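Structure in, sequence out. Go:
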């Protein structure tokens, strides 16, 4: 009986945590057109959906191993300007989510 109680509580906790994680859903909004360098803050992209200024974006490397978050300063045509420079290099094809 005690194991069953612990199992039920664990399942409820897991359900609540998964709901909290879904609060921020990231949508693919752009793809890098050219490689970037460390300290770069101007990303040249192929825009797939609206990118909002003042909000966070996630940049995911092509292999999906590296994911970093940055704040968008300004969006102009096919450029996304970041508040802070990149901490890593990204190859063309890296995905940008918002």
């Amino acid at each position: 009986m005690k194991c069953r109680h612990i199992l039920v509580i664990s399942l409820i906790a897991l359900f609540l945590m998964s709901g909290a994680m879904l609060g921020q859903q990231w949508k693919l909004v752009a793809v890098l057109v050219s490689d970037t360098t460390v300290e770069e803050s101007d990303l040249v992209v192929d825009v797939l959906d609206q990118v909002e200024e003042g909000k966070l974006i996630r940049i995911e490397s092509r292999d999906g191993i590296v994911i970093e978050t940055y704040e968008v300063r300004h969006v102009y045509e096919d450029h996304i300007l970041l508040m802070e420079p990149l901490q890593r290099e990204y190859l063309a094809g890296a995905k940008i989510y918002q």
